[in-house]
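Record type: monomer structure entry
Structure origin: computed from sequence
Chain ID: A
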Amino acid sequence: MAALLGIVFFALGTGYLATRLVQIFRVRYASYEDRYLATTADQLDSLFVFITPEGLLRMSLTGGSAGCVAGAMLGTALGPLGIMICSAVFGGIGFFTPRLVIMIMVQVRKNRFLKQLPDALEVLCKGLKAGLSVMQGLQLVASEMPEPVAQEFGLLVKDIQLGRSMPDAMGMLYKRITLPEVRLVVLAVSLSRRLGGDLTEALSAVAQTVRNRFNIERKVKALTAEARMQAVVVCLLPFFLFVVFWFINPEMMKPLMSSIAGVLVLAVVSVLELLGGLMMWHLSKVKY
């Protein structure tokens, strides 16, 4: 009788704990989903990628599930603990890969826009000096410059044509391309329209500032390239040696993946490598 009561209480406690865990998971997942959809919506719009944030989230979930299955298949030779570790690692990679690709695409597009921005401002200044209005100058930039500057200035022109004011349209441009150089352009145009002054000189100064800033950034990257490469090599070397020793002598490396002590050692080493890499990256990053 006592054993039966113990089993009943154990089942009730386990059921209640599982229910609470499911509730907590649902709340956390709903919060993460809201943040995920809010951030990816702006990124997808800025890239002109015709996929909904919900679709990207489903792609992430599908990739995570496929990664878990692939990790479980690869970890069968390492035992139950190896299956769990491989599933978690490959599942995380599959889940975060779509979002990482979008972030890389956004950064690449911003860099291309930044490289083209000084030339676009010079075209706008030459158009204003030739007697064109600001609207005609923006249309000239949208028609003459390559993408992505042509796309962004084309959207800027369409926003103004649809009735949005110049400062609001420039604010939308900064919302799509969140760069400090774009903010300088927005401030120059806004201040010129509010306080008066020569907009051509202001835009020429901004173009020169952006070009000088870009040249300084390239020089800084060239001077710190060795330090950054050293950081990458030092951080990846232990994992490279782990793979090499795994192929050379798998029996010697198997305890690291099939025992709790080995997993703890790998976890500690991974955390220390991550902290060391972040520290070296921070030291090699020069603020100017």
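Annotation 1: The first helix runs from residue 2 to 47.
Annotation 2: The domain at 116-220 is CATH 1.20.81 (Receptor-associated Protein).
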